[in-house]
Amino acid sequence: MPSTVSVGLLCVSDTAAAVPSSDQSLPTIRSVLPSDAYTVVADKVVADQSPELVETVQAWVRMGVDLVLTSGGTGMGSRDMTPEAIAPLIDRPAPGLVIAMLTSSLAITPLAALSRPVAGIVHSPAGDGTGTLIVTLPGSPKAAKENLESLLRVLPHALELAGGARSRSTTVHQRIERGEDGLEGVRDAVQEHAHAHHHGHHHHHHHHHDGAGGGGHAAPRPRTMLSQDPSVAVAARQRQSPWPLISVRDALALIFEHTYVSPVQALSVEPSLVGHVLAEDVHARGNLPPGPSTNIDGYALSAASTPPGVYKVVTTFPTTPMPPGSVYRINTGAPLPPGTDACIMVEDTEVASRDAATGEEETVRLVAQVDGGENVRGAGSDVRTGDEVLRRGDVVSDVGGELGTLAFVGQRSVRAYRRPVVAVLSTGNELRDLQDTRDSAAAGGHAEARFAGIVDSNRPTLLGVLQSLHFETIDLGICGDSMADTTARLKKGKEEADVVITTGGTSMGVGDLLKPCIERELGGTVHFGRVAMKPGKPTTFATLPAHPMAPSREPKLVFALPGNPASALVTFYLFVLPALRKMEGRRDGEWELPRVPVTLTSTVPLDARPEYHRVFVRPSLESGRLEAYSTGGQRSSRTVSLAGANGLLELPAASEAEGRDKSAGETVPCVLIGEVGPVVY
């Protein structure tokens, strides 16, 4: 394995991208790096503001490259966007390196004040404490050389730290503690770092990068944060939640305020369109049927000249009026031939003669008289040219009517809103995947032999519900209670999805890291952190800033739901699904799930908080009303209370006015989360 630092060189320049041979910055940078300590393993030229800039850096981080040096795009020109592209990728900024470069350059020219370099460490996707050091250099070969030379003595120590070393265990600190020059012999430190990094962390090649597009410390953020600081000792952390307790209505208002409508795209009219919301009105392009046609199987004829009797059967569609004494055999939906104005049903005819060779009918006997226009659909009788058949905001449902209508009017493609992609993550050291049997095997098959963890039911439940609603999903797996792991998973979700749903980690426990991670590591904004409801009090809603060079500048939504299964699913239906329905283009007023009045069949106690009680709703033939049947115990950890549930009773908090319970026979509002059950006879 190599014993030098691996380096990626990236030139960012429109000119060099058009004519790669014109770039002189990368050869200059190569000449400055000592060849016995640094090895350039990759180089590339990309245009200013090209998506390849970020993509290339991400790929090199995944490869485990130790040092990435970019040249160009750091000035104040309209196309200079390198700092905006790189800063959000950085997990740990290195402002000292930036100061060193600017100080060195300002000593040479005052124009250096116009440079906007950034530097810092991007964490490895492996989450093992290692990372890639990134420094942005000017595009001028002379300026790039001067900036890099100003860093050469400190780069080895920075690379040691980026490689996972602790500050006081590095070669530099060991020299200082011995009273020596800490930076003397830095080339040895570089080689020691490179050897350890390449041997100890070669697994970088086998992991997906989680940090693409994620906001780092360089992203804009509020000056005050309410979340606890995970670096503080447990005993010194907050004992009471700093988040105000807000109502469900206020929570929904905040969600809708920060939820955007997805962009519009043209889609083919095919089964995959089901679930999409139309972004345009659809009008009939012509009359349907375009001319007179029949709605039966039978025989077309001229009513006035075809009384009951025997007639010759014509089976080939005539282009001229049929001769007297004949009828045309016709199928449902077919156009009427010239000279005909009515159709007689097969049931009103008899076979009079057959062809001797084929056995097919030659003549038929009509046993009834039909009137003109009988069994005929007139031109445009279904829809006329210009008729509105579907409206913007209509959902292409799985009932089939909308898809059939589009096909009926000949609409081959239609403009529809893009459906949001949703990533789902479960958090908690105690969780294990349902299909993971390793702990059970270690326990000898006896559950009581040792604690084998809690089976994660939230993730498969939410993924299943989302997929049944035709949303594309990303499974982020189970995340341990660590800031590095949580940050990496959320970054992956931010990069690949529009909405991230997490469960667990939202309360006040030692391992509850969602809020600190969102605020302190990802530069996000937590809009609320507690809701006055049962279940679901710790529900959290946040937004993460988009990458400055992302195709869409809309923020990514994060719903951090409670870990208890009932709480997670109830809050999904009350908060997450309405946001998704807005994003997919539904009309205002259709974002929330429908609420209907239901009659209680048993007494239901009221809680100190407004409660969402799981019930099974079905109509009663006797009363003509919808009746609600409780699913039993409503403890938030009791997943079975959700089995068979298709509604959530919206119960008020206990009070003097509301009393302490709702009695059987009373009517209360209910949020429908599924199909209404069968009729009770």
From TrEMBL:
Give the pathway. Cofactor biosynthesis; molybdopterin biosynthesis
* Taxonomy, superkingdom: Eukaryota
Sequence segments annotated as region (Disordered): 194-233
The protein's annotated catalytic reaction(s) are: molybdopterin + ATP + H(+) = adenylyl-molybdopterin + diphosphate; adenylyl-molybdopterin + molybdate = Mo-molybdopterin + AMP + H(+)
What are the recorded Gene Ontology BP terms? Mo-molybdopterin cofactor biosynthetic process
The Basic residues compositionally biased stretches are 195-209
Q: Read off the InterPro entries from this record.
A: MoaB/Mog-like_dom_sf (IPR036425), MoaB/Mog_dom (IPR001453), MoCF_biosynth_CS (IPR008284), MoeA-like (IPR038987), MoeA_C_domain_IV (IPR005111), MoeA_C_domain_IV_sf (IPR036688), MoeA_linker/N (IPR005110), MoeA_linker/N_sf (IPR036135)
Q: Which family does it belong to?
A: Belongs to the MoeA family.
Q: What is this protein called in UniProt? A: Molybdenum cofactor biosynthesis protein
What is the originating organism of this protein? Rhodotorula diobovata
Species classification: Eukaryota, Fungi, Dikarya, Basidiomycota, Pucciniomycotina
